[in-house]
Specification:
The protein is 51% helix and 6% strand. The protein is mainly alpha-helical and 389 residues long. α1 crosses α3, α4 crosses α13 and α10 packs across α11. 38% of the residues are buried.
């Protein structure tokens, strides 16, 4: 017998369990209904449906409790001043850049344990908050399920203290269904097709920052996400923000992201069709490059553009350059912490991540033609053709 999930029953259960009913968005129930319709269309077995229901329940109750905190505490009074953002194509060094900035003792970064379990505000609890251990256990499960992910993203060994992308702050918004949004369900990820609202998503992002800043020492926020498609909304939410944008050879980006996502999905749904994956990720890379070339805010004075190769050659020098761009000094303590981080966290510490641009030639693409296609982008941002194979 086919198991069917019921959106109305899951919403009612979450509200009964928490004694709350305000999701912070009157459109949430309708959007959640679309997610449940999608889940029911997959034909998952009983175990898969049970996992999906558990994930949905956790996200719904977390959202209810999170927005209730806005009434329990004066969290809304928190001012988020001049946040520093990192962005770029996937596999362009943004995570390492963000990781280096996160060890600055004067900076504050989002942590997985906070974003996964955001209620109550961490500033109202002590250093032994049990949510840390709970998120550590979650990440041990994730790493065991997707061990190859550590090859391309060794930062996952930080477990609950790891550094989520900004997109994870709206994990409970039901606009995407991805493993990094705690979506540990035997199904393909969903990154398109569900309703999006960038302005609303940045509102959630901002209230998350307020939640995690409340009753804690004042530090400046250092953040990372894929903001290139949402620059207007990002700067509307944070007019005094700055952004460092790393640029890499799109051919390498497409090949690397293909292999990374294949490694992730293999742990969730089994063997992956690499040809289909390569076509999809090349298309996604093309769309992103088109957006970068056409986005009117791409040369906003609040944005610093950096070549990936320059960052790889001098990571801390690149961070110092961005700090100077922001009107901040990179102090001795911060630079030392970044040096220590690089020494202690080699990129291949869990095994060498291997990928090849033959993934693209295998689907009939000509590398010379691809380089020619992306030439205007490379010329505009000074990006050279990268040779790795």
């Amino acid at each position: 017998m086919t198991v069917r999930l019921r959106a109305d029953e899951m919403l009612a259960r979450a509200e009964t369990e928490t004694g709350l009913s305000d999701y912070g968005d009157p459109t949430l129930a309708q959007r959640f209904g679309l997610v449940v319709d999608h889940l029911n269309s997959l034909g998952m077995d009983e175990d898969g449906c049970r996992r999906a229901e558990a994930v949905c329940h956790g996200l719904l109750t977390s959202r209810l409790e999170f927005f209730a905190d806005r009434h329990r505490y004066p969290v809304a009074d928190e001012v988020i001043e001049a946040p520093m953002f990192v962005t770029g194509e996937p596999r362009s060094g943004t995570t390492l850049m963000h990781a280096l900035m996160s060890v600055d003792p004067d900076a504050r970064a989002l942590r997985f344990w906070e974003v996964m379990y955001p209620s109550p505000p961490p500033g109202t609890t002590g250093p032994d908050d049990p949510r840390r251990a709970r998120a550590d256990a979650d990440w041990r499960e994730i790493n065991a399920k997707m061990p190859k992910w550590l090859h391309s993203h060794p930062y996952n060994d930080m477990l609950g203290d790891g550094l989520p992308e900004d997109e994870r702050t709206w994990a409970f918004d039901f606009r995407v269904l991805t493993p990094t949004a705690w979506w540990r369900v035997p199904m393909q990820t969903v990154v398109g097709g569900l309703p999006t609202d960038a302005a609303a998503q940045y509102r959630i992002h901002q209230v998350m920052l307020q939640q995690f800043q409340y009753r804690r020492p004042r530090k400046y926020w250092v953040l990372k996400g894929f903001h290139g498609f949402r620059l207007a909304e990002m700067f509307a939410a944070y007019p005094d923000a700055t952004l460092v944008w790393l640029h890499r050879d799109p051919v390498q980006v497409a090949a690397s992201r293909t292999m990374m996502m294949a490694d992730i999905l293999e742990g969730i749904v089994g063997p992956v069709d690499l040809h289909a994956a390569a076509k999809m990720h090349l298309d996604l890379t093309r769309a992103s490059i088109v957006n970068t070339m056409s986005e009117p805010l791409v040369h906003d004075p609040r944005i610093l553009h950096v070549r990936y190769t320059d960052f790889v050659a001098d990571p801390i020098g690149t961070v110092r350059r961005y700090y100077r761009f922001c009107g901040r000094d990179l102090g001795v303590a911060a630079a030392t912490a970044m040096d220590d981080y690089l020494a202690a966290n080699k990129g291949d510490r869990h095994g060498k991540f291997r990928y090849s641009t033959t993934l693209l030639t295998d689907i009939g693409e000509d590398l010379g033609a691809l380089h020619e296609e992306f030439a205007p982008f490379r010329q505009r941002f000074g990006v050279e053709i990268e040779s790795r194979d």
